[in-house]
């Protein structure tokens, strides 16, 4: 049952060198810098997004993800879910308005995987960059690099997948769209959606809590993914794998690393999900094909390099 969570809203990523990171996310991924704050954080967005920002970069001593936020329909929904999160047993922190620039109050909670998430309802809207919302053109001029169209999802590694599924499904209203099952019946991977997308957040079982695998950005076509691969080689950017296709979600994809070692994905296509769809299930022995449909084997780096 939907609870009023609309979509992924933002992710705050730790980077080691802000100048290098901004160059990567602006010039290569094609995000637009929207603001900076007195903490030195940099706020970026993709061009189709109506809110002011979706990616926040924070300079730190080690890379990784600080938190991921989901936008809700209203402040009343945030209040309702805050109570349900507390009843579920989550550790909760109330983050005041404008702690993130031009963002309303947020309710932060720790999932059983050890990751920090937050819900909020209010953020300044600046409209689709370069085209606006009245008689808009097809796309804006002046975009750089891969021309990412939106921040799409994160993949996270941690323990306690069953409890995390219960939290996202029963409290926040997500659906289980796809899963990978081990022979003993244990779920080792889960792809959760609160929209019609293949996934808005995904988790893979990992004994160490709170690990960040990647942040993903949507491109329009397979040709755009191939062009992204060209740009990665043109800039000597470290590539993890691709271009290829996923079995899970069937997206067309390429993975690469930012200068701090955080993994990014850009992808096109992918399945859709409605609430009456049964979860798609992959067997763990088919995990190679599930993740890399063409190669049908996993590269060690994809499974072990985390931040």
From TrEMBL:
E.C. number(s) listed in UniProt: 1.13.11.2
Q: Which family does it belong to?
A: Belongs to the extradiol ring-cleavage dioxygenase family.
Give the protein's recorded name: Metapyrocatechase
| Keywords for the protein's UniProt record, in alphabetical order | Aromatic hydrocarbons catabolism, Dioxygenase, Iron, Metal-binding, Oxidoreductase, Repeat
Keyword Cell division on this protein?
no
| PROSITE patterns the record matches | EXTRADIOL_DIOXYGENAS, VOC
Q: Which residues form the VOC domain?
A: 7-122, 150-269
What organism does this protein naturally occur in? Acinetobacter sp. YAA
Does RNA-binding count among this protein's keywords?
no
Q: Which InterPro entries match?
A: Catechol_2-3_dOase, Fosfomycin_Res_Enzymes, Glyas_Bleomycin-R_OHBP_Dase, Glyas_Fos-R_dOase_dom, VOC_core, Xdiol_ring_cleave_dOase_1/2, XylE-like_N
């Amino acid at each position: 049952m939907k609870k009023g969570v609309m979509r992924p809203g933002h992710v705050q990523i730790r980077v080691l060198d802000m100048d290098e990171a901004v160059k990567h996310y602006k010039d290569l991924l094609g995000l637009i810098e929207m603001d900076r704050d007195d903490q030195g954080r940099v706020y970026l967005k993709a061009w189709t997004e109506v809110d002011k920002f979706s990616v926040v970069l924070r300079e730190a001593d080690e890379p990784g993800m600080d938190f991921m936020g989901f936008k809700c329909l209203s402040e009343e929904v945030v209040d309702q879910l805050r109570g349900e999160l507390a009843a579920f047993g989550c550790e909760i922190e109330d983050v005041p308005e404008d702690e993130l620039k031009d963002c309303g109050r947020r309710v932060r909670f720790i999932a059983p995987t050890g990751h920090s998430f937050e819900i909020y309802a209010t953020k300044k809207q600046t409209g689709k960059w370069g085209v606006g919302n009245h008689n808009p053109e097809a796309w804006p001029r002046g975009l750089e690099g891969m021309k990412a169209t939106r921040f799409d999802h994160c993949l996270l590694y941690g323990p306690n997948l069953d409890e995390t599924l219960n939290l996202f499904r029963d409290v926040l209203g997500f659906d289980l769209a796809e899963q990978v099952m081990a022979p003993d019946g244990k779920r080792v991977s889960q792809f959760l959606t609160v929209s019609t997308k293949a996934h808005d957040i995904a988790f893979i079982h990992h004994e160490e809590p709170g690990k960040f695998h990647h942040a993903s950005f949507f491109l329009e076509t397979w040709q755009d993914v191939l062009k992204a691969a060209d740009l990665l080689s043109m800039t000597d950017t470290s590539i993890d794998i691709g271009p290829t296709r996923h079995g899970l979600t069937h997206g067309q994809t390429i993975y690469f690393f930012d200068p701090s070692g955080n993994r990014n994905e850009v992808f096109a296509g992918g399945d859709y999900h409605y609430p009456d769809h049964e979860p798609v299930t992959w067997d763990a022995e088919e995990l190679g094909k599930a993740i890399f449909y063409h190669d049908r084997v996993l590269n060690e780096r994809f499974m072990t390099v985390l931040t």
